[in-house]
C-alpha cells in the first residue's frame, strides 16, 4: 500500500514540493465564533474567559478593551496605574489617585509622626541668656539680645531606644531666620553644637557667621557642605527639610528643592540622648539675632 510520502503528499494533502497559498496572516473576527478551546478557554461575545466564568463570582475574563476581571494575582514586576479603588469605584473604602491623594476608611500607622505648631512650650528645654524663647500667636520667637555670647535655645529630648539614627527619618522646619553679622545657629536632629565640630552625633542645618551648611556627624568625624548664605533666607519664611536613609545618605532641601546630599559620616549608632527637635542660636558680636519658628514636622519609620 502506498503511503502519503510515496504519493508526494504531506499530512495536509498538499504536494511536498508546493506551499499552500496564505490568504491572510490574521484570523478574521468573523471567523471566530463562540466556543471552547481545549475545553477550558472560552471566547464569548468578544471576551476571552475561562470556562465557567461568572462575573463577580468565579473565574476570569479579559475584554477587548483591556479590562480584566479575576480573583487573586501575583505580579513579579512593577504595578503601574492611575487609580486604585477598593472595593469599588462608586463607594471606595480605600482609594489613591495618580496625584498621590489617598482616602481611607480608617488608618493604623506603624511609623511615628509628630507635627506641632507650638501650642505650648511645656516639655521643651529652654535657655534664658538673656531670655527664653517666647511663644506668640503664630510662632516661637528666638532672640539673643545685643551682647556677644547671648543665646536662645529650644530642644526636645526623646527616648534613644525608640528614636534612633538606625531608622529612616525626616524633619521639616518652617522658619524665618533674620540673622545678620557674626552668629551661629543650628537646627535639626541630635546633639546640636553651634559649630562644625566633629563631635556629637547629629544631622542638621548650621549657620556659621552668615554661611549656611548641611552637616552630618557620626560622633567622631563630620561632613559639611556649604549651601548658601544667611542673606538668602533672612527676608521671609522658608521651609528647611531633611530626609535620612541609614547607610545611604542624608538629603537636605530648602523650599522643596534639593540643595545637598551627604553620604559620608552618617550617624549609625544609638546615642545616650537623642534630640528629635532642636533650635540653637547665639550671637558672636554685639548684635541681636532673631528667628521666628512657625511649625515643625518629624517622621520616623518603625
Describe this structure in words.
The protein has strands spanning 35-37, 41-44, 47-50, 61-62, 68-69, 84-86, 94-96, 102-104, 112-116, 125-126, 134-135, 140-143, 151-158, 169-178, 183-190, 202-208, 211-217, 222-229, 238-245, 249-254, 257-262, 274-283, 290-300. With 302 residues, the chain is mainly β. The chain folds into 3 domains: 1-73, no CATH class; 75-108, no CATH class; 114-300, Jelly Rolls (Sandwich). The strands form 4 sheets. Strands 9, 11, 12, 14, 19, 20, 21 and 23 form an 8-stranded antiparallel sheet that branches. The radius of gyration is 33 Å and the shape is elongated.
Instruction: Give the count of helical stretches.
Output: 0
Low-pLDDT ranges? none
Domain tally: 3
**Protein structure class:** mainly beta
The CATH architecture term of the largest domain is Sandwich
- Strands, total number: 23
The proportion of residues forming helix, as a percent range, comes to: under 10%
Order of helices and strands: EEEEEEEEEEEEEEEEEEEEEEE
CATH hierarchy, class of the largest domain: Mainly Beta
Strand percent estimate: 35-45%
Radius of gyration: 33 Å
Amino acid at each position: 500500500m502506498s503511503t502519503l510520502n510515496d504519493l508526494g503528499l504531506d499530512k495536509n494533502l498538499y504536494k511536498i514540493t508546493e506551499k499552500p497559498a496564505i490568504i491572510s496572516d490574521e484570523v478574521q473576527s468573523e471567523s471566530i465564533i463562540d466556543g471552547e478551546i481545549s475545553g477550558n478557554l472560552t471566547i464569548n461575545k468578544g471576551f476571552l474567559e475561562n470556562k465557567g466564568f461568572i462575573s463577580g463570582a468565579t473565574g476570569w475574563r479579559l475584554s477587548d478593551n483591556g479590562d480584566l476581571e479575576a480573583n487573586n494575582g501575583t505580579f513579579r514586576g512593577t504595578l503601574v496605574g492611575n487609580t486604585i479603588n477598593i472595593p469599588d469605584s462608586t463607594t471606595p473604602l480605600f482609594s489613591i489617585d495618580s496625584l498621590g491623594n489617598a482616602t481611607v476608611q480608617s488608618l493604623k500607622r506603624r511609623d511615628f509622626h509628630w507635627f506641632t505648631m507650638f501650642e505650648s512650650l511645656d516639655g521643651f528645654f529652654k535657655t534664658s541668656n538673656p531670655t527664653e524663647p517666647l511663644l506668640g500667636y503664630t510662632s516661637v520667637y528666638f532672640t539673643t539680645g545685643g551682647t556677644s555670647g547671648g543665646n536662645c535655645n529650644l530642644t526636645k529630648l526623646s527616648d534613644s531606644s525608640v528614636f534612633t539614627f538606625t531608622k529612616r527619618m525626616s524633619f521639616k522646619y518652617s522658619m524665618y531666620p533674620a540673622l545678620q553679622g557674626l552668629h551661629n545657629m543650628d537646627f535639626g536632629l541630635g546633639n546640636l553644637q553651634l559649630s562644625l565640630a566633629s563631635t556629637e552625633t547629629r544631622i542638621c542645618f548650621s549657620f556659621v557667621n552668615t554661611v549656611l551648611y548641611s552637616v552630618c556627624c557620626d560622633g567622631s568625624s563630620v561632613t559639611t557642605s556649604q549651601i548658601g548664605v544667611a542673606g538668602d533666607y533672612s527676608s521671609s519664611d522658608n521651609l528647611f527639610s531633611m530626609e535620612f536613609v541609614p547607610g545611604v545618605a542624608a538629603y537636605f532641601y530648602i523650599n522643596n528643592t534639593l540643595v545637598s546630599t551627604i553620604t559620608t559620616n552618617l550617624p549609625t549608632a544609638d546615642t545616650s540622648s537623642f534630640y528629635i527637635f532642636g533650635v540653637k542660636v547665639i550671637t558672636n558680636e554685639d548684635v541681636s539675632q532673631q528667628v521666628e519658628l512657625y511649625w515643625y514636622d518629624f517622621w520616623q519609620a518603625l
